[in-house]
Amino acid sequence: MARFNNHRILITGAGAGIGALMAEEFAKQGAEVIVTARRIAAAREVADRIKTAGGKAHAYVLDVSKLASIAKFRDKLHEEVGPITALINNAGVVFGGEFEQVELEQHLNTFRINTEGLMATTHAFLNDLIQAKQGYLVNIASASAFVGLPYGSTYAASKWAVVGFSESIRLELDVRKIKNVDVTTVCPSYISTGMFDGVKTPLLTPMLTPEKVVKSIIRGMLKKDSFVIEPPIAKSTELLKAALPRKIWDEVAYRIGVSTSMYSWKGKK
Ligand SMILES: NC(=O)c1ccc[n+]([C@@H]2O[C@H](COP(=O)([O-])OP(=O)(O)OC[C@H]3O[C@@H](n4cnc5c(N)ncnc54)[C@H](OP(=O)(O)O)[C@@H]3O)[C@@H](O)[C@H]2O)c1
């Protein structure tokens, strides 16, 4: 299937996890993929796999926490490859634990990467998407953008901010009558990539596979969905929160295991 023929898709944090899998899937579907990662070796490994399978890929270093480097990277990419038509803001980190026991720098780094890095990358590349015949902006948030997440407060906060940003950009493009750029905000619950190793998944919220999430993201993009929420039951969170008195919702979140899910978080080694 060549649903992304004529697309040049940049993915941040694409050296591992769902970023790497998206890169391979987009390439299979005809896209030229810009695989970016903090380490060039990780980006090259994914780009090489794509090229060996007959796809088109380029590997670049992009550390989204180095905010000032992002516009320079855009200029270099324009010179060496050209403008992009789709941006997948995927890079992310999490540091779980009791709030005051986690180093302040790790909390701040979470915000710098998950939120500021995503905004700076969008700032650098939005004009490319506007100039494209069909542009896509995909922001990977999280189902924790709809709830409070004990032991993961700055992670949840960074993703709440991503949802607010992503929705605002989508509406801004609409108000500006820019119809050729579709914005999709992705909110999955826990995925088995290692980032959340050790968590206890809440009731009725099974651990998602990277394959399932990537399939949903691509389907959502093609359907021009403004939100992709996985699993579907996570869509009821906002409804329940609005309908129930706060104390009852707090009790529900505790009893179904949302509020305690991060207690046993270990993350990637
Ligand atoms: N896993 C889940 O349960 C889950 C649930 C909801 C949402 N998400 C979100 O999904 C996205 C992908 O996560 P994942 O599950 O695929 O985990 P992952 O395998 O850890 O992927 C995260 C990627 O971000 C990269 N990254 C970290 N800091 C970076 C930086 N400063 N600059 C550029 N890249 C950086 C990582 O690179 P390194 O390998 O160099 O660290 C890694 O490739 C993240 O935004 C995450 O918050 C994940």
From TrEMBL:
UniProt xrefs under Pfam families: adh_short (PF00106)
GO molecular function annotations of the record = oxidoreductase activity, acting on the CH-OH group of donors, NAD or NADP as acceptor
- TM segments? none
Check the record and name the Gene3D superfamilies matching this protein.
Answer: NAD(P)-binding Rossmann-like Domain
SUPFAM superfamilies cross-referenced by the UniProt entry: NAD(P)-binding Rossmann-fold domains
PROSITE patterns assigned: ADH_SHORT (PS00061)
The chain positions of domain Ketoreductase read 7-184
Per the record, the similarity remark reads: Belongs to the short-chain dehydrogenases/reductases (SDR) family.
* The protein's name in its UniProt record: Short-chain dehydrogenase/reductase SDR
Write down the species. Alcanivorax nanhaiticus
